Prior knowledge:
This is DNA polymerase III epsilon subunit-like protein. The protein is α/β, with parallel strands linked by helices. The chain is built from 6 helices and 5 strands; from the N terminus they run βββαααβαβαα.
Amino acid sequence: MAYIMVDMESDGPIPGDYSMISFGAVLVDEQLDQSFYGQLKPISDKYIPEALAVSTHTREETLTFEDPVAVMTDFKNWITSVCKDRPIFISDNNGFDWMFICWYFHHFLGANPFGHSSQNLGSLYKGLEKDTFTTFKHLRKTEHTHHPVDDAKGNAEALLTMKKERGLKIKF
């Protein structure tokens, strides 16, 4: 199995009505040197300025981004190139990130290379620590900047620390 840490930014709360603006992915291994970054042109006229502001992009900028079909095709090809077997989607907030990535794969390509399930980094850490009130975020080394590749890399670093220092049984 190959764990792919994903983070995304959007201009609203749900796919379809709103758009995924950008996303980043990092192959979780000791090097953390294989990553993907995509910027997608909006698919809707609707957007929430406060949500878009998190991405640090303006609406005008996003209108110059790439066609979602091309970006999702490139992402699928990248996943295939870095995974020798089944890719596992994992993110800090998989309820949100997964919803957009899964919708975009199915809507634009007809299938999701991750299948039908995802993993939640925060829940994994809570179980490892046996504490539903704890957070893993102190385990990040890369600053959380809201650039999706930075954020995915920081989360991947946290997962590696869980394995090395907290005894998490996981194979990369």
